[in-house]
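Continuing the series of single-chain predictions for the mutant panel. This is the parent chain; the variants come on the following pages.
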Amino acid sequence: MMLNLHVPDFIPYALAILGLLLLWKLHTLQVQAGRIQAIDIWDRSGIRMFIHATPGDDMACASCREAHGLVFLPSLVAHKKFTAMTSPCTNPSGCRCVLVGLGTGWPEAQRVLSLLKEQDGTIRLAEEELTAVLRGSRQIGTGASVDQVPVRLLNALLDERSDPEAAILGYRYVIEHAKEQRDFPFLIPSYFRLSDLLERAARPADALPIVDRFLKRYDKTSHVQATESHLAMMKARQIRLMMILKTANTA
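Parent structure:
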């Protein structure tokens, strides 16, 4: 005698999610074991080169300024002992440099990639050269659409000194449009730079929601964890901004 079993509708979906989680865990274990190399992941995501950059202001230390504009092939970045800097950052507020992976979907980037291959995988771009490469991306074709977020981040870093408002818009763009896995590392730097620019521009009412959003997004349940240092710095900024606003409201 056969029993009539009723399988709840949600069970297939739950099993599918469980399967995806198991596959992702297996993938992570393979990466950690060295069976899948980081360079393979970058290749599949379309990354062809990495640019090291730091904000264009007077707070960058000598080590960060020296590494600014360096470009590397992924094969070099994949080395376990890779570092873009010859000496540690000495900025008392912490290093603000970023290493940004890009494709080469526009002519200026393709020329840089060709130079990299000729120069053993490393070159340095002067500020005007880096600016020219990034500005050229405004004519990015559909094949390079994955570079929109990292290019906006790099442009914002360069704009901080000459056009802070453009930098603010750039960081906002990154926060709102970083939806792909490869773009997630750009979120924390964008939150920091955006809130810092707004605070220094005496716009505490605009800066505080950014800080609040960061602390809410990167709580202990976040799949992308901020460091204790990140959280402490943002909590300190939150308190500082709240005090500024409170003082302004009672004046």
